[in-house]
Design a protein that fits this description.
The model has no long low-confidence stretch (mean pLDDT about 85). The chain has one domain. About 75% of the residues lie in helices and about 0% in strands. The protein is built from four helices and no strands.
Length: about 100
């Protein structure tokens, strides 16, 4: 398996955006979010032990990026709460699993 990011600087730009976000939140919140991210990343890695960890990480980054884009582009009055984003993520996975 291999993955080529959408453009050469995509990973760097994503990390810069994440760092900028983290700079604007409290230390307690940043640590809590970092710990949750590490937990989810490790769980994904353990669920797919035969898949390169970097590939799993890139897929997770793209998924989060797409969900964040949906929230940012939502028209006024459309409430995309966390449960809705989780459902969208699950439906995306289900779509791909069902397409096999």
């Amino acid at each position: 398996m291999s993955y080529a990011p959408l453009w050469p600087e995509w990973v760097t730009q994503t990390r810069e955006a994440l760092a900028a976000h983290n700079a604007g939140v409290s230390e307690t919140r940043r640590i809590a979010l970092q710990d949750l991210g590490a937990y989810i990343g490790e769980e994904l890695r353990m669920e797919f032990p035969d898949v390169e960890a970097t590939l799993i990480g890139l897929i997770a980054l793209r998924t989060a990026s797409h969900l964040g884009g949906l929230i940012a582009d939502a028209p006024d009055g459309v409430d995309l709460e966390s449960a809705t984003c989780v459902t969208i993520g699950l439906m995306a996975g289900d779509h791909l699993v069902g397409a096999r």
